[in-house]
Amino acid sequence: MARVFNFSAGPATLPEAVLQQAAAEMLDWNGSGQSVMEMSHRGKEYMAIHAQAEADLRELMGIPANYKVLFLQGGATLQFSMIPMNLMRGKSGADYVNTGEWAKKAIKEAKPFGQVNVVASAEDANFSYAPAQSGWKLDPNAAYVHYTANETIGGVEFHWVPETGDVPLVCDMSSNILSKSVDVSKYGLIYAGAQKNIGPAGLTIVIVRDDLIGQAQPKPITMLDYKTHADNDSMYNTPPTYSIYIAGLVFQLLKKQGGLVAIEKKNIEKANLLYDFLDNSQFFKNPVKREDRSRMNIPFTLKDESFDEAFLKGAKERNMIQLKGHRSVGGMRASIYNAMPVEGVQALVAYMKEFEAKNG
Ligand code: PMP
């Protein structure tokens, strides 16, 4: 059976080469006579996989030595709480930028831990843009500034990094981490669930500057304290070993493909293919302001809703799945993470052209 083009927002398509390697190593990893899934996390085989995954991620993202890389569980959603719990550090509040569904969730979960100042919001235009920093009302005494680098549902992405001076910048990079090069030193903390651009669900990555660890007041319970995981190389308890192994294979592949600068170039080309078509179509439409359009998640609507079902059915017949938009916004959404080959985007555009010619 041919593999489908899977446009899911996450869990999402993974590189075929990684899946093939994992399949080849499934019963016997590297002559060890066991699957990675079966290995003790304290054994030398798994410890080597774990250390290599961290080293490769550090190399790919250029993570400075004064940052810890934590391999955690609980999803980006648990980070919505762990961040204020650990980073409020006795200060009265934190600044948040409201760009859509995911930012709203982060804001909601921070409220029990201090004053949450929404310093900018794009709600006035249905979350169709990233608010320019000139309009943000930042508090110089805030514990940190939080923003969502890519709104997975709305398809809005920051193509610039906010300047927050001495106030630590905290970023939800769940849906665009590893899609482009970033200057990690501009951030206090970066977090991302793995199931979009990294690997299987079950792993959450946190990259946090040393000085922000161990400052929580009051001290969180053990498992929710970054210090616990930083002090134990993410092995305080059993880590999500198989997810970390697959993530490690993805990191190695990205390195082979030329690193994040090369990946970014490919992602721009892929996104442009679809946006160029959308901009010239009389039938399909993307609602996001041009400069703030996501390269990862591209929502679009058809001329009217009555065409949606036929569009999805035809897509399925052409081996393209998961194009239905998020239930909160309707329409369609094509998620085209790193692992979506350009052929998948070409196939989608060809189908959209055909659909427009027939129904437009
Ligand atoms: N933030 C963003 C931007 C997301 O896209 C998601 C998941 N779609 C989350 C947070 C929540 O992540 P998780 O399901 O891993 O908790």
TrEMBL record:
Binds 1 pyridoxal phosphate per subunit. Its main location: cytoplasm. Pyridoxal 5'-phosphate binds at A76, T77, W102, T152, D172, Q195, N237, T238. L-glutamate binds at R42. Homodimer. Belongs to the class-V pyridoxal-phosphate-dependent aminotransferase family. SerC subfamily. This is Phosphoserine aminotransferase. It comes from Denitratisoma oestradiolicum. The lineage of its organism: Bacteria, Pseudomonadati, Pseudomonadota, Betaproteobacteria, Nitrosomonadales.
